[in-house]
Amino acid sequence: MLLFVYVVDVEVANEKQVLNRFAEDKNVRVAPDTNYYPVAKAPQNLPERPLGIGFGPCGLFAALTLAQMGFNPIVLERGKDVRRRTKDTWGLWRKKILTPESNVQFGEGGAGLFSDGKLYSQIKDPKFYGRKVMQEFVKAGAPEEILYVSKPHIGTFRLTGVVSSMREEIRRLGGEVRFETKVDDFIIHNGRIEGVVLGNGEEIRSRYVVLALGHSSRDTFRRLHERGVYVEAKPFAIGFRIEHPQSMIDQARLGKFAGHPELGAADYKLVHHARNGRAVYSFCMCPGGTVVAATSEPNKVVTNGMSQYSRNERNANAGIVVGISPEKDYPGGPLAGIALQESLEANAFILGGKDYCAPAQLVGDFLKARLSTKFGEVIPSYKPGVLLGDLTVSLPQYVIQAIQEALPEFGKQIRGFDRPDAVLTGIETRTSSPVRITRDAETFQSLNVRGLYPAGEGAGYAGGILSAGVDGIKVAEALAKAMLADLA
Ligand SMILES: Cc1cc2nc3c(=O)[nH]c(=O)nc-3n(C[C@H](O)[C@H](O)[C@H](O)COP(=O)(O)OP(=O)(O)OC[C@H]3O[C@@H](n4cnc5c(N)ncnc54)[C@H](O)[C@@H]3O)c2cc1C
Questions:
Q1: For position 206, what pLDDT does the model report?
Q2: CB contact at 8 A, 358 and 290
Q3: Strand order in 192-198's β-sheet?
Q4: Where are the beta strands (DSSP E) in 246-314?
Q5: Which segments in the chain show pLDDT lower than 70?
Q6: pLDDT tens across 83-111, in order?
């Protein structure tokens, strides 16, 4: 039997009477007020404008919230607008041409643009900021169902339209969004941010700066560290992408209801605690999606996954990753996690044949540590292509051992998960930021630079589109309040 569970939100004429009538029924209660109420309003003669660095989901929601409160933010984004960025990104996938400042990671919409557009998160959200994120997406053209389905997703194609219409809304409200504008340096005096220096040498002065860099802006992380901004190493995870036929996952998860139009393509979430003390888990599962080349740097290979709204590609894919930490695995200081990512990604580039193809191996061969030479039924979706070989040399041995142990265990939960012809594509290294740009829990400002608001995934305060958007709203509110307090 197929059961659908609904939570129904209704307005009634006489609320008191209705509540009295259902006083004993735990399933009937007053719905919380999920409306968003701005916390500040900028005065007419604002003496300076806040800056936002980065226009991913975090920078976008920070800028939108500030613009809605009248603070006329200026957003500086190193990449291009969605239309030109999409062309550049396809350049890598179709023609093996990487544009280092305009790709899967950099450009309007941030890393979330070419994604599955999954919009759920496990963050605590007592103020319902997540609801504002969803409502703004719907206003900008996302399907209305994201407001009520349990696992909403937009898909990459629709996200591009949503993001560009939100950018226009920011402009309409008095904000400014500048593309191809990389922040190269930071002007800091006596523990206070005073402005930024752009790649072309131009200085922009502001004492209020939102730092929403994403996890791949390694040059900027290094610059912040050089300038003395407090940065620390943080844990992240590394591994591979795995692909199976979506029909196999549907069958294993939904049984006789596989293919039911109301259920769509099935997803999964898996965890295994390996004997060597490592946790192996599935990450960013994309039902009916594709594996994509996600590097932003020349001569590196890194994978991720995305899907369209319809989720009707042949394969299901997910990261199968192992948690690693600075204490155990990269103890060399705040930037050691970045150095580890760089060396693994450079090695993957070589294993893939030095032309942006990714190294890949069949699961059966990976488990027996032998070279793969030909595909079975599963044909990997990674563009621009894969080179079959031996992935057991691509990551540290504790990671390989943990994944070799986990796959057969996952096969017990999802029949066929460890089938010999499932394909692993390497490598997944950018699961989250390798650094935290630590901020004060109350003021949201950097621990040692006033006026600097580290935010979103790159600063270590979000992991995903929804949580990055929510963090952007929180930081915008903190910045607006601080600016008004300074003016008082
Ligand atoms: C292929 C892929 C699929 C994904 N799928 C999903 C998914 O389905 N669901 C989900 O929740 N999450 C997904 N994610 C993760 C999600 O995209 C990120 O968690 C989210 O985008 C983080 O938001 P952010 O704004 O903090 O950073 P980002 O989105 O990374 O944005 C940071 C922006 O800052 C800009 N920038 C960096 N440095 C500078 C500088 N010095 N000067 C100017 N601009 C700068 C960058 O160009 C970038 O546009 C996916 C990620 C990828 C790569």
A1: 98
A2: no
A3: 183-189, 192-198, 203-205
A4: 271-273, 279-286, 290-293, 303-306
A5: none
A6: 999 999 999 999 999 999 999 999 999 99
In the chain, where are the structural domains located?
51-232+438-487, 235-428
Q: Please give the pLDDT value at position 415.
A: 97
Give CA–CA dist 107/101, Å, rounded: 8
Q: What is the three-class DSSP state of 379? A: coil
Which residues lie below 8 Å from residue 143, measured CB to CB, with a gap of 6+? 154, 158, 309
Residue 246 CA to residue 261 CA, distance in Å, equals 14
Which residue has the least CA distance to atom 19 on ligand 1?
464
What is the C-alpha separation between 454 and 441, in angstroms, rounded? 11
Q: What is the pLDDT of residue 380?
A: 97
Angle of helix 336-351 relative to helix 218-226, nearest 10 degrees? 150
Ligand 1, atom 4, lies closest to the CA of: 115
Fold of the domain spanning 51-232+438-487 = FAD/NAD(P)-binding domain (3.50.50)
Q: How many CA atoms lie within 13 A of 169 on its CB side?
A: 20
**79 CA → ligand 1 middle, Å:** 11
Residue with CA nearest ligand 1 atom 27:
214
Give me the phi and psi of 33, to 5 degrees please: -80, 110
Q: Which residues line ligand 1 (CB under 6 A)?
A: 53-59, 76-79, 104, 106-107, 110-112, 114-118, 182-183, 212-214, 217, 220, 284, 292, 294, 304, 306, 456-458, 462-466, 468
Pocket test for ligand 1, best of 60, 284, 345 (most atoms within 8 A of CB): 284
Amino acid at 193: I
Alpha-helix runs per DSSP H in 352-414? 363-368, 397-413
pTM of model > 0.90: yes
CA-to-CA separations, 11 to 30, 78, 138, in angstroms, rounded: 10, 46, 21
